[in-house]
């Protein structure tokens, strides 16, 4: 089992990144590869899930260990394969997903690509009680927000980076204009949060 890959990020594609280490290039499939744009040609450490089947072997990569752990949990749900699990992780944070499962919010869960009512109910049945360690702590999140001061120029740069990531996923300039306005009014503090909010807005449109 390959738990992580550490090396030089050499290439970013629409659905994967390439990491070179010890003369070997590892292709790693990711939910949002362009999140790694700032690390291009630099050393990175990617948490990986080694997906093995009789006729196929794939590496899926994640920035955070909890993303990898949730991916593994999703693969245990009947009706969800690796592509479906990756699509879910590309549009939501782990705490948000955990909260939706614990609250049995089927309407929220059916917003993810390829997830209907039957699959949403199966996720609740299979995962409820197993994700509580990741439930959001509102007081903790508020404290973190208060501690990080973001200037106007930093906010613009982060919003623009998020928009570039969304554009790389295939969304049009027209669609992104609406998202741009909403993100400018957002209280998010990092690029990942802007991308997630943008995807949620586009899913609603």
From TrEMBL:
Principal localisation: cytoplasm
Stretch list, region Domain III: 153-205
Give the matching Gene3D superfamilies. 5' to 3' exonuclease, C-terminal subdomain (1.10.150.20), Nucleic acid-binding proteins (2.40.50.140)
Q: Which domain of life does this protein belong to?
A: Bacteria
| Comment block on domains | Has three domains with a flexible linker between the domains II and III and assumes an 'L' shape. Domain III is highly mobile and contacts RuvB.
User: What family is reported?
Assistant: Belongs to the RuvA family.
Say what the protein does. Answer: The RuvA-RuvB-RuvC complex processes Holliday junction (HJ) DNA during genetic recombination and DNA repair, while the RuvA-RuvB complex plays an important role in the rescue of blocked DNA replication forks via replication fork reversal (RFR). RuvA specifically binds to HJ cruciform DNA, conferring on it an open structure. The RuvB hexamer acts as an ATP-dependent pump, pulling dsDNA into and through the RuvAB complex. HJ branch migration allows RuvC to scan DNA until it finds its consensus sequence, where it cleaves and resolves the cruciform DNA.
Self-association and partners: Homotetramer. Forms an RuvA(8)-RuvB(12)-Holliday junction (HJ) complex. HJ DNA is sandwiched between 2 RuvA tetramers; dsDNA enters through RuvA and exits via RuvB. An RuvB hexamer assembles on each DNA strand where it exits the tetramer. Each RuvB hexamer is contacted by two RuvA subunits (via domain III) on 2 adjacent RuvB subunits; this complex drives branch migration. In the full resolvosome a probable DNA-RuvA(4)-RuvB(12)-RuvC(2) complex forms which resolves the HJ.
Protein name per its UniProtKB record: Holliday junction branch migration complex subunit RuvA
Give the originating organism.
Answer: Halobacillus salinarum
Encoding gene, per UniProt annotation = ruvA
């Amino acid at each position: 089992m390959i738990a992580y890959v550490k090396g030089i990020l050499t290439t970013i594609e629409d659905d994967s990144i390439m990491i070179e280490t010890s003369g070997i290039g590892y292709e790693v499939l990711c939910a949002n590869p362009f999140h790694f744009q700032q690390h291009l040609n630099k050393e990175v450490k990617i948490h990986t899930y080694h997906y093995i089947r009789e006729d196929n072997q794939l590496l899926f990569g994640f920035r955070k260990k909890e993303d990898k752990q949730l991916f593994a949990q999703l693969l245990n749900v009947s009706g969800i394969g690796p592509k479906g699990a990756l699509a879910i992780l590309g549009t939501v944070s782990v705490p948000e997903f955990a909260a939706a499962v614990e609250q049995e919010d089927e309407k929220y869960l059916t917003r993810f690509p390829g997830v209907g009512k039957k699959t949403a109910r199966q996720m609740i049945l299979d995962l409820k009680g197993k994700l509580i360690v990741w439930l959001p702590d509102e007081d903790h999140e508020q404290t973190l927000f208060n501690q990080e001061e973001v200037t106007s120029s930093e906010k613009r740069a982060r919003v623009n980076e998020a928009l570039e990531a969304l554009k790389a996923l295939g969304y049009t300039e027209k669609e992104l204009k609406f998202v741009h306005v909403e993100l400018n009014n957002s209280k998010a503090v990092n690029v990942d949060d802007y991308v997630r909010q943008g995807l949620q807005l586009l899913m609603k449109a």
